[in-house]
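User: structure tokens for this one?
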Amino acid sequence: MRLHVCGTRGSTPAPGPAFVRYGGHTSCLALAHDGEAPTLVVDAGTGIRNVTALLGGAPFRGTILLSHLHWDHTQGLPFFGGGDNEASEVRLLMPAQEEPVRLLERMISPPYFPIGPREFRGRWTFERIAPGDHTIEGFSVRAVEIPHKGGRMFGYRIVDDGVTIAYMSDHSPVGAGPGEGLGAFHDAALELVKGADLLLHDAQHTSAEFERLSFLGHSAIEYAVGLAELGGVGRLLLFHHDPNRSDDEIDALVRAAAGSSVVVEAAAEGATLELH
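Assistant:
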């Protein structure tokens, strides 16, 4: 399995020289089977623009799997050239709730945007996904509901050829019920990450920031490290970086986690991981 990291920021894009190494685009991953072009895109923040180049000029034929509907996970949809193509075939899945097109039209339609999702070129379908086990583009995918403020949020456990990726881009551990400090390691989070080879986890805040900012619905970096350790994860990529956190500041946070029993790195836009 090949993982392309196409966008790593949370909340809003972060352009500028202080954000070059870890990237300024918002959340997006592209997954491909060995030797193939990407067919599964997870989240459609502004980083989905980077997926077009991975296709080598071909139209996208595959699935976009949304974790939830916040702007930083959907705002790239109308700008995805590989999908907005007369020859594309795109299946878009979102956590089951209201009718999918109606939900998307709340942000992608006049007067907020010149076109609506039904006007994307190519053949698009818009569907719901429920919690549980699914097969999507040849990948085994488990959808697990994860606490996050402001709408239904799913984490995904994706397996291909014996390799497991856990993806929890946004996570409010204190939203799962009573908990102290940085939040409880609740059952849904542990189910998602247990024994994963690679975990991409919400790391928007530091523990020093958490009490002041936890109402926004995100995790502290130290929580992500602790969850990875408890779940026996092989490698943790800190993800959903605060848009104000510079490359140098992210470097310092990774160094601070160097004593963990888990390999801790920061997700960087443009990285390609070959997972076997």
